[in-house]
């Protein structure tokens, strides 16, 4: 696959699940899965040989794998901690079968921050995970709440990466912002989710974290952010203009963002967004991602990057160089 001059390709927001977690999620989660294709995607989520076949067919050398669809994060506390631990053990087991094809991010029971910090340390130091993933706000609470500080303190101590992934927004948010008499219930669910709402909420999450001083206090951890940065790069200068009014942080918002945040497209293969992000961040802060199996763009995953109007140095950084550095691959 890497014969000739074919560039190495690593995609960094790719997902898995386990039968045990799906069962537990369906049984105990108050947040219902809103992906209408969840059942038909199950083989590609659970079976790692399916993933390998897909990667081989489409020229993907490595995936950085995480659980983001039905994360144990949203389970009641008594199930979340054990559920996250079980996910990480199973992921490590699967990676050990294909160590040169997969790297993993730990599922964190973020609703129990002390345990989440312990699980992050265990997963990184004992299981070889390359960081952790947090999916959306936690029970309607944003991560700038001081109760979540142990997670960032541990990530900082380890010098590791947290992937901030969107999650399902609260019913109250959905009702106020997206429900409408003018279109269907499915329409409002999609608008509140993958079409717009998830991403807007995740951008708010990032804005709050930096404004609250979390990056100032913890300069050694990194954040990976998909979907071209969940709206933030488009507003960096705007946010900088207002930040001095609301914080006394020594650096500008964009300084923290450009120092500690790494972006990828999550299957949103759109040239104008790519150019914006490269202009704001530089290729050394941009990676590639497809969002498999929720997005299955096949050969386009590689072709879009190969044909993009960028320099060869940028292409190599985005295809594999940035990810190799960030995740120590």
From TrEMBL:
Keywords: Hydrolase, Lyase. One of its GO terms (molecular function) is hydrolase activity. It holds the Pfam family Amidohydro_2. It comes from Secundilactobacillus folii. One of its GO terms (cellular component) is cytosol. The keyword Lyase applies. Coiled coil: none annotated. Residues 48-329 form the Amidohydrolase-related domain. It comes from the Bacteria. This is Amidohydrolase family protein. One of its GO terms (biological process) is secondary metabolic process.
